[in-house]
Amino acid sequence: MSAQRIQSNLGALFAGISLNQWMALTPPELVQAHLNLDRQTLAVLRKDKPVIVARQEYPKRKPLPEWPEKTIAVLSTQNEEVHAIPITAPLRIGDRQILLRLKRCRESLARLRQHPKVALTIFAGGNLAFTARGFARVVQEPMSGAPMFAAVAIEVENIDDHRQRDLVVDSGISLDWTNERTEQFLQEHLNALRQVAASEMTNSRLP
Q1: pTM exceeds cut of 0.70
Q2: How many other CB atoms are there within 10 angstroms of residue 118's CB atom?
Q3: pLDDT in tens, 1-38
Q4: Per DSSP, which regions of 127-197 are E strands?
């Protein structure tokens, strides 16, 4: 009878030690006399118990989706109470990072300095409905391209997907581009944010 067959029949009786290991630690003469095993079978028995560790799969974090430039989002900050304010054209600058600007006089800017945990909610065309949650930090104040504003980066940790199978978001809240002044303001806004984004990327590559 082979060791593999014996282990198959009796393995369930041994929880802390395998049958292979138990036979290897028993004097070979005793095992051979009682189980009728040849020396070749005894020679391949192992005294140590192999440990099998299951491979762990870690889910990849979802990247931020792309949204239209003229999107208006809602930024929620917290200071004992939750405060929500509209944000004009937040800029996606990476899979897990968002850049936006706040007026330096806004209470929201003061709140996120003390309580940097924030949430940004976006509903936009293309069936986009999500909240990006993470930590905010002021990366430039004042902004070189818009001195009345401070640039704020959100390092996204979690993305809550609000889409539903039976409901489709075909449009969100956005700016009216038919007004020339509004279009110029938005373009200046985006250009100023892109300058900050370029500066942040350059600084992150410095040793």
Answers
A1: no
A2: 22
A3: 555 554 454 444 444 456 666 666 677 776 666 666 67
A4: 128-140, 149-161
d(CA 126, CA 70): 13
Per-residue pLDDT reduced to its tens digit, 100-156 = 999 999 898 999 999 999 999 999 988 999 999 999 999 999 998 889 999 999 999
Say if 153 falls within a structural domain: yes
The three-state secondary structure class of 73 is strand
Q: Can you tell me the distance from the alpha carbon of 134 to that of 95, in angstroms, rounded to the nearest whole number?
A: 13
Identify residue 21 by its one-letter amino acid code: Q
| Count of domains observed in the chain | 2
The length of the chain, given as a count of residues: 207
Q: Which residue do the tokens 């118990």 mark?
A: 49
Q: What is the extent of the structural domain holding 87? A: 72-205
